[in-house]
Design goal:
By secondary structure, the chain is an all-alpha fold. It has one domain: Growth Hormone, Chain: A (Up-down Bundle), CATH 1.20.1250.20. It is built from 16 helices and no strands. The two termini are about 35 Å apart. The model has no long low-confidence stretch (mean pLDDT about 80). GO terms for molecular function: transmembrane transporter activity.
């Protein structure tokens, strides 16, 4: 073994706590031999992706960008649904196509490049865009970015399942979340120094860093050592959709998981409303944005490795516990909003609860990703991931409009109480899911 390979193996064993890097549970021997190097490539690729996601967040950064451009307020309402649904809806239509490919990392690389180019357009708009036309181009770029994200999402999980063994995947996702959180923490601290300046140049720099993050993601994905997989059973678009609907009817385990995941959307949907309450206390300045990014990065840095280790033992329990925390965060924020002005007229109470909800949301995301990857066999993994994501994308569009109507009549605080009840339902549903890590 070369010195470089020995160093990679030692680093891998240190990160995973694995005394024998060649012990693999559900991947071929050839993939097992490459696991230490692939683990680190996955880690750095995921770091680039997570950092880019944070710095182009539809829940924080892009609303500030549209405000700086002077775009119409109604455009802000489209950011989260477009970002999420645009990434999730098309996935069932590409699952069969990916299944036809023995090597799937090329789809991942393509998705990374598409996201990098879309973020570059947004960075240019931060410098030169104005008003409605600038906002429209940002939204159009977000649609393209979301489609690229959808390609990467399904391919990443499929390649991860082929190259990294069970009970190592959660650890991998946890370390990448922690590293990205640390970098995001530094970015938030720098933004706080800008105080009440609008800073379109700073926003452009953030989006340029996001561009580089996705470029790094694509580069490292191309260097993963992936063994050819089976191509039997590949389907066209309509066959994939038909098979997906059949699975929802016949596979009760898969249907139950998707019901739990639907209720777990409450954590994602609550984040922008808590941020909105915080923004109302700080205006659209970069200082307030910096505080939100700072607490988000700190929360992600601390939470992800812990959730990752716990997910390797039981991703079902991670989903359950994070849903309980999300419910408490939603209820607490509603209470703060109804308190006298001395308590509610500062961004900090909302920022602190936002940080706790980011911790919960990290658990939701990591738990359900680990669960669906471990639940599906290697021959069905791409289809399970794609169908689950498409189902969630449809719900995101439908529920997004419904929640907007609820918020119109009850205010953000009233809506957060509704989301707290949904999160409690998610916890109860997750508790009844069977274990898949055995």
């Amino acid at each position: 073994m070369s010195d470089r390979a020995s160093s990679l193996t030692r680093l891998y064993e240190r990160l995973t706590g694995d005394e024998d890097s060649r012990l693999c549970k559900d991947i071929p021997d050839a993939a097992c031999h490459e696991q230490p190097g692939n683990f680190l490539r996955h880690l750095l690729a995921s770091l680039g992706n997570k950092l880019a996601d944070e710095l182009s967040s539809a829940r924080l950064v892009l609303p500030w960008l549209l405000g700086a451009l002077g775009a119409p307020v109604w455009m802000v309402g489209f950011l989260v649904p477009v970002r999420e649904a645009g990434a999730l809806l098309p996935q069932v239509f590409v699952a069969g196509y990916i299944r036809l490919k023995a090597i799937r990392k090329g789809v991942w690389v393509t998705g990374g490049i598409v996201q990098a180019l879309a973020a570059l357009v947004m960075a240019i708009m931060a410098l030169f865009g104005q008003g409605a036309w600038g906002g429209a181009i940002v939204l159009a770029a977000l649609v393209v970015l979301s489609l690229g994200r959808g390609l990467s999402s399904i391919a990443t999980k499929d390649v991860l399942g082929k190259t990294i063994s069970k009970q190592r995947r959660g650890t991998l996702m946890g370390w990448s979340g922690s590293a990205a959180g640390a970098i995001t923490l530094a970015v938030g601290a720098v933004l706080m120094l800008f105080g009440d300046r609008p800073g379109q140049i700073a926003l452009s720099i953030l989006l340029l860093i996001a561009t580089l993050g996705w470029a790094l993601n694509a580069l490292l994905a191309s260097r993963i050592k992936e063994e050819p997989g089976a191509t039997e059973g590949g389907m066209n678009v309509w066959s994939s959709l038909g098979e997906g609907l059949r699975l929802l009817r016949t596979d009760r385990h898969f249907l139950h998981f998707n019901m739990a995941r639907a209720l777990l959307l409450s954590s994602a949907l609550a984040l922008p409303y808590i941020a909105l309450l915080g923004q109302q206390q700080s205006g659209s300045n970069l200082g307030g944005l910096g505080i939100m990014i700072l607490v988000s990065g700190l929360a992600g840095m601390l939470a992800s490795p812990i959730w990752g280790k716990l997910a390797d033992r039981s991703s079902r329990k991670v989903m359950r516990d994070s849903a309980v925390i999300a419910a408490l965060c939603c209820a607490t924020t509603a209470l703060i909003a109804w308190l006298p002005g001395a308590w509610s007229d500062s961004v900090w109470p909302y920022a602190l609860v936002y940080a706790l909800l980011v911790i919960a949301h990290a658990g939701v995301r990591l738990g359900r990703k680990a669960y669906v990857i471990d639940m599906a066999g290697s021959d069905k993994r791409a289809l399970y991931v794609a169908l689950s994501n498409t189902f969630t994308g449809i719900l995101m569009l439908l529920v997004g409009g419904l929640l907007g109507a609820i918020a119109h009549f009850t205010g953000s605080a009233g809506l957060l109480l509704v989301l707290a009840l949904c999160a409690l339902g998610a916890a109860a549903s997750s508790q009844r899911l069977p274990e898949v890590e055995m």
